[in-house]
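User: Here's a structure from my thesis project, written as structure tokens. My advisor, Dr. K., wants to see whether a designed sequence matches the one we expressed. Can you design one independently, without my sequence as a hint?
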């Protein structure tokens, strides 16, 4: 994982401050239900959702290729409940009822090969009727248009009189891939860390085709966290795919 914001010890602690909402978690857990299931959280990051599911009684495995993210996951309250695995979809073993990939982790799969391999690996770990749920930003909504220093600037309070100002800037649009940088200016010290990242905005038809090729049948699509229908203007494309 080369993305600094999943690796740099100064940036990893910012992740949870930047992603404090839980509407996505509520969406997925409503579909998971209350009966205890075996769940794998692929690209689990700092482990917020994995721990939340484990506290609800599910047997959870959190998988992530970024060691610094897993360090935060292990250290959080309840971090002893899930099983943590360092790696990607190839790294985990066992059988699961549900696989989730949240926080747009799916967009880290930059190529067709990476996406299809992930679908194959996840499908191989699910029984018939098992579900793979994930979301990706809708390319038609062009979220990257708002990733300008002016439109994306925000200040996070780190406590103790410390703050960080963040802003995004797109460096290159290359087909479905968007390369961008995030500038972090730590205050009052004034020092700066710049991280670079690439995300893929894959179209729905291609994702659905890949899911079917991997052995998923029904795919339900949603366009927002309230469960609304997916439309051209939806910012999210949320997939619930069932293994056949
Ligand atoms: C934006 S974070 C999302 C973290 C977490 N799921 C959440 O909702 O907060 C994306 C995560 O995907 C992980 N990741 C990157 N490439 C991956 C891959 N090929 N397979 C699984 N996870 C990956 C990164 O290390 C990072 O922790």
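Assistant: Designed independently from the structure alone:
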């Amino acid at each position: 994982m080369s993305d600094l914001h999943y690796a740099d010890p100064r940036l990893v602690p910012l992740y949870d401050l930047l992603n404090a909402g839980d509407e996505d978690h509520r969406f997925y857990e409503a579909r998971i239900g209350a009966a205890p299931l075996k769940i794998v959280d692929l690209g689990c990051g700092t482990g917020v959702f994995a721990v939340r599911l484990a506290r609800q009684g599910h047997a959870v495995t959190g998988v992530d290729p970024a060691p610094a993210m897993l360090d935060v996951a292990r250290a959080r309250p309840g971090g002893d409940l899930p099983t943590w695995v360092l790696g990607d979809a190839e790294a985990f073993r066992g059988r699961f009822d549900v696989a989730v990939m949240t926080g747009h982790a799916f967009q880290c799969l930059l190529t067709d090969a990476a996406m299809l391999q992930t679908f194959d690996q996840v499908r191989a770990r699910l029984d018939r009727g098992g579900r793979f749920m994930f979301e990706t930003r809708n390319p038609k909504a062009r979220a990257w248009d708002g990733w300008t220093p002016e439109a994306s600037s925000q200040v996070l309070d780190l406590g103790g009189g410390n703050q960080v100002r963040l802003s995004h800037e797109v460096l290159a649009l290359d087909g479905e891939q968007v390369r961008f940088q995030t500038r972090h200016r730590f205050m009052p010290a004034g020092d700066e860390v710049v991280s670079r990242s690439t995300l893929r905005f894959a179209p729905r038809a291609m994702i659905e085709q890949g899911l079917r090729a991997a052995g998923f049948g029904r795919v339900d699509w949603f366009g927002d966290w309230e469960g609304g229908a997916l439309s051209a203007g939806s910012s999210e494309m949320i997939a619930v795919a069932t293994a056949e």
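When you compare it with your expressed construct, this may help: The pocket of S-adenosylmethionine is lined by residues 1, 6, 19, 42-45, 48-49, 64-66, 69, 88-89, 102-105, 108-109 (CB under 6 Å).
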